[in-house]
Design a protein that fits this description.
The protein is mostly helical. It has six helices and no strands. Keywords: Signal.
């Protein structure tokens, strides 16, 4: 199930990386991913019935807050690919700095919502949430990065031609 969801998302994100993505498209992709992630989370986190309402309310807040970060990351992937034609030190540094900031924003949000879930439910449920989110985020990033050649790969391919 997870693999299927990730494959669908990967195909969608890959096709849109090669075309200019509008804000509406980026938001739609982030929302689609959010729905898919929620389904996966429901299979990976065992929430006690007494904690279910509180957990899902907090999770929905978390997912909504992450839409902005997700949209920014989608745009960043697109800008990375578009920068390959004129990559210089300034562009490379700017991209790296923005990737770091995006990841830090995502990590801060994850920690903030881990604490909220722990307070509303318990540490075990919060830890399951944390593990599931990290797992899914890692899988999604890996799927996307497999579709985007690195700048070094592009340079090598260009030299061979």
């Amino acid at each position: 199930m997870k693999v299927l969801l990730l494959a669908i998302f990967s195909l969608y994100i890959t096709s849109s990386l090669y075309a200019q993505t509008s804000d509406a498209e980026a938001e739609a992709m982030a929302n689609l991913l959010g729905v898919q992630k929620k389904e996966a989370i429901s299979k990976m986190v065992s929430v006690a019935p007494k904690d279910s309402v509180a957990f899902w309310k907090i999770y929905d807040e978390y997912a909504k807050k992450n839409v902005t970060t997700g949209k920014a990351r989608i745009k960043l992937y697109e800008q990375t690919v578009q920068s390959y034609g004129a990559m210089g030190a300034g562009t490379a540094d700017s991209l790296a700095t923005r990737y770091f900031a995006n990841r830090m924003d995502q990590e801060k949000t994850l920690e903030e919502y881990y604490q909220k879930i722990k307070k509303a439910t318990n540490a075990v449920t919060a830890f399951e949430f944390y593990q599931a989110e990290v797992y899914l985020l890692t899988q999604i990033r890996a799927q996307i990065m497999q579709q985007i050649p690195t700048y070094g790969q592009v340079q090598l391919a260009t030299k061979k031609q």
